[in-house]
Amino acid sequence: xxxxxxxxxxxxxxxxxxxxxxxxxxxxxxxxxxxxxxxxxxxxxxxxxxxxxxxxxxxxxxxxxxxxxxxxxxxxxxxxxxxxxxxxxxxxxxxxxxxxxxxxxxxxxxxxxxxxxxxxxxxxxxxxxxxxxxxxxxxxxxxxxxxxxxxxxxxxxxxxxxxxxxxxxxxxxxxxxxxxxxxxxxxxxxxxxxxxxxxxxxxxxxxxxxxxxxxxxxxxxxxxxxxxxxxxxxxxxxxxxxxxxxxxxxxxxxxxxxxxxxx
Length: 263
Known about the structure:
With 263 residues, the chain is an all-alpha fold. It is globular and about 70 Å long. It has helices spanning 2-35, 50-57, 59-89, 96-107, 110-124, 130-154, 158-166, 171-200, 203-208, 216-226, 231-262. The longest helix is centred in the N-terminal third of the chain and has 34 residues, at 2-35. The protein is 81% helix and 0% strand. It has a single domain (58-262), classed as Orthogonal Bundle (MetI-like fold). It contains eleven helices and no strands.
């Protein structure tokens, strides 16, 4: 009787789990299917790269993708560099309130942060465009990168740093030769994560880009509201591949960072 109940329970668990996966991934599979078949309906069609050719030949779509890559890359470099310098500085200074501020920004609803940034830019007289987008994405990146890098540094042996200081090493030399080699995997992990989330961002791009700059998220939003274009399936499939590659990279680097912490 107990064995039958266990079998029924395991079967129901598998069924529910399978239905959950289908609910999540079936629309994505449909999107991928339609990106490779030259049809605008749901009927069967021959394999074709028509929508990918259309995506590449669309100047507006490529411009939006280029803007997104530029904003994501620059904001990732800025936020990860600032986070690394700030966290390394806590070896000698301990401004706890700074970490609290950035942790709050990480869990704050993004629409609130976007509206707040829009208000700040308006009051400061900063025109909306590429600069405002990079600033907004860098702020989001700080809230993500700082906890990751700080957690990696907290697992490092403080005695090694103290020994280097006692031997006469300067603070920049300690950072370059001792601290950074031990947390470089976590820095790369944070960079991959910030880059992925920046490419996927919508609210900051919508509120802080103005009319002069179009990112891929605002472009897709505008296209869906106007007239859905099947080439968006190709674009979404391409972004899915790139983001999946980035996620795989973050998982791999997270594993390497954990190994580095345990050494």
